[in-house]
Amino acid sequence: MNNYPFDPDDMLKRSRRIRRELLADGTPRIHKKIAVLGGSTTHDIIRMMEIFLLRQGIEPEFYESEYAQYYEDAMFGNETLDSFAPDVIYIHTTYRNLKELPEMSMSREDVEALLGRTADRFAGMWEKLTERFRCPIIQNNFEYPAWRLEGNRDASDYRGRVRFVSRLNERFAAYADTHENFYLHDINYLAASYGLDAWLDDAFWSLYKYALAMKAIPLLAFSVSNIIKSIYGKNKKALVLDLDNTLWGGVIGDDGVDGIELGEETALGETYREFQSYLKEQKSIGVLLTVDSKNEETNALAGLRHPESVLRPEDFVDIRANWEPKSANFAAIAGDLNIGADSMVFVDDNPAEREIIRQQVPGAAVPEITENGAVDGPRPENYIRVLDHAGYFEVTTFSAEDAKKSEMYRANAERKRAQTSFADYGEYLKSLEMRAEIRPFEPVHYARITQLTNKSNQFNLTTKRFTEPEIARAAEDPETVTLYGRLEDRFGDNGIVSLIVGSEAMTVTDDEETLRKNGGRPAETGDRALLIDLWLMSCRVLKRDMEYAMMDALVAECSRRHIRQIFGYYYPTAKNAMVKDFYGRMGFTKLGEDGKGASQWKFTIPAVYTNQNRYIRVNR
Amino acid sequence: MTRDEIYDRLNEVFRDVFDDESITVNDRTTSADIDGWDSLEHINLIAAVEQEFGIHFAMGQIVTMKNVGEMANIIAEKLAARS
User: Which of the following CATH numbers is that of domain B3-82: 1.10.10.10, 2.120.10.10, 1.25.40.10, 1.10.1200.10?
Assistant: First the structure.
């Protein structure tokens, strides 16, 4: 619901249905009366404001002034407005409402007087409204004019209308700066950000007296509703941040702290650094920063101690780096900080992770910082824009306490760190509609398979590296079992994400009976076994049941070959602690472990093996 | 695009804009026939039609269309001119 960016065309078209559905969704909302005093048509502005406010937890009721009657309503009032008794007043005026503008024939004094008159006319309105209603007032400033008589000099000549608008806006700003309960709505910035030529649509003015293009109306309405929700304490409080490919480029568990992209040396590294600087500044307005990352905690901290990292571990009030589902960590962070999930914004480059938060954590804000199904990787250059324009932390008041908020929460969180149980992860997995292809290695995939054996570090039991000819040899050897797993879900193709390579071996026995019969030598039993040389998986698909799907496929392949025993090996490295007990979770029995932590495991295929994967449809 | 296809898509737009799945428009449909089709919703409708067909009406056309048939004529002309 609270997602950003939104689709303005769709909102305009389907607003009736969206409104009906929002009103029926059972969300508790506060009721607020909003008077919109317009200097141009406001019908669709109100229609859009209603939707945004409903999404932000406010059920609005509107008063709409008669066409362009903003000044009359404010100065002289009317019975309807009086009895409406607004909680908030929004004055929607624009450049179109500046009836008197500087002319080339005017003297400096003339223009000065005109500026004073214009500013006073508005200030008079604000005073009257405050006196009568004692409620917050939101006032547009002015967008720049559509054309410039003098060209660039319009911005410097005392008669230039660009300069006139700038000076008038400064007067409005000074008033806002010195008056409580008065909020400037910066349409000058909005129009610039949108593109002034696109914002000003003369056809819509001539036809319907709209002071801006139809398609820009949702943006304007969103911006006003952000001020309103902020006034009523509905701002977000915390950012919940992913690490890999969100705060830096690359996967720290695989690439190592020296391998991530962060810093001035590369364009991508610089972009991530700028994003970190942006986030660090959020702290100064009281936004809490937290981490929700699938990583070993030591790796997460190493990344945040990277020499080029603007954000340091101490900038965060809570760091959750582990292999739990992100939604479980999200809930745990909410508990630690004692804030509602609906006060938190989840920032992650991975659309599947965003989806789990959307499904598991009602009310959480989940901006689309990357496009769904983007094939060319994350686009960190967009992160700031998406977060900034979403208005999550719209400031309407600012206190000294806001600046210190992070420290406060950090202390609280340390105390309260508690386990939070997770309810319905299975539903999420089901909703992903996962499909896997699990097959022996095929020539077309050799390159990718080779790359994967050389890149994967975390979910990698033996960390055995292969060259492409070695992969080909394994694939062609009839006594070697090879399996690759490719996973797709409704967000797209994850590609080949898991590999298994195993060698067939004869089993021998050395029991007394055999030794005696065989002249003291052990003998082959005739049973065959599989020794697993390689088992790896990309961490992107952790906790999706893919490891079980691979296990099931392995068992099936072994059964086909009349192999009844599977031996697995874990060789510890600096990075693969997460799979230390992997074989145990897969149902293997531990045979032994040496002093360095290397362990051997055995799985005997039962007469009736039940598949362990529950959520992935597998094609062989 | 055939006239039937244009009407299929127009029906979808009308249903979306007026949130009424029962709407079916034809050449003679006018604003009097559809609940909520006033001058203000006309703006919204025009914007949605423009988006659906990827076209832009001229100002004169927006105010002179008398019924859905005329709207469909203009859409057909614009689509034909483009192909």
Answer: 1.10.1200.10
